[in-house]
Design goal:
single chain; about 260 residues; alpha/beta; 10 helices; about 30% helix; globular; disordered C terminus
């Protein structure tokens, strides 16, 4: 599903930059009424700039990676793609993964982000596609410090939606305009979206990317995140079943260990 722009860029895997070498769109679709160029879908493109494509061997298999800069905000994102085309001629799998330091790096069980990231990388490596790691979207866009403040409110009894509201912050402050433009630059105009969140599908559609299928990324819930997931299902319309559950295993304390040795 790679466009001629991506194929002609000189990238051997079809995920390279556009002809100008920086990932910014060079195709002319005629100016809009305000003088700004618009894409073929009629949506004004969000300026982004792509860097070189490099090999990225990982624990999940071999990928190729390309950094992209949002020229409006200056935030840098990363596209991690399978070097293999999608199977059976299907549209490529695409995951828009919002940065989550606590879940992605430290393996926090308060959310399901780290486990969804691993699941998506496995799916993309096996079936072809791209994961866009979207930086600057910590805590659904409120930032790391505010996310920790929201955690404190959750520990006081508020759910994840109420906690943001108590802080006077949006429930979801993320934007996918840059992500949609990166996908367009990569020639990914029709995708199978790895997500449980229909809002992502709607926002991509408004930005000119057609989602032909929503592919669930639900992972087993845990004692530590079941309320968080129920809130996402009930109040944010995430497509979750919540019919599988992992019970937390008690940690063996030094006292227990010593007793067992006796």
């Amino acid at each position: 599903m790679t466009s001629s722009t991506a194929r002609d860029s000189g990238s051997p895997n079809g995920h390279g930059t556009s002809r100008n070498g920086h990932g910014a769109s060079t195709a002319s679709h005629g100016p809009s009424a305000n003088g700004q160029e618009r894409s073929g879908s009629g949506v004004a493109p969000h300026p982004v700039s792509g860097g070189p494509v490099v090999q990225l061997p990982t624990a999940f298999g071999d990928f190729v990676a390309q950094a992209w800069t949002d020229l409006v905000t200056g935030v840098e994102h990363l596209a991690v793609s399978s070097p293999n085309p999608p199977k059976d001629g299907k549209a490529p799998l695409v995951r828009l993964h919002s940065e989550c330091l606590t879940g992605d790096i430290f393996g926090s069980y308060r959310c399901d982000c780290g486990e969804q990231l691993a699941f998506a990388l496995e799916m993309i490596q096996q079936n072809g596609g791209t994961l866009l790691y979207l930086r600057g979207q910590e805590g659904r866009g409120i930032g790391l410090a505010n996310k920790i403040k929201a955690y404190a409110l959750q520990e006081a009894g508020f759910d994840t939606v109420e906690a943001n509201e108590q802080l006077g912050l949006p429930v979801d402050a993320r934007s996918y305009n840059a992500a949609a433009q990166v996908l367009a630059e990569m020639g990914l105009h029709e995708v199978r979206l790895l997500s449980n969140n229909p809002d992502k599908q709607n926002r991509l559609a408004r930005a000119g990317v057609k989602v032909v299928e929503m592919v669930p990324t639900e992972v087993p819930s845990r004692d530590e995140n079941i309320r968080y997931l129920r809130t996402k299902k009930d109040r944010m319309e995430h497509r979750l079943l919540l019919d599988t559950h992992v019970v937390a295993v008690p940690v063996t304390t030094p006292e227990t260990f010593e007793h067992e040795q006796d």
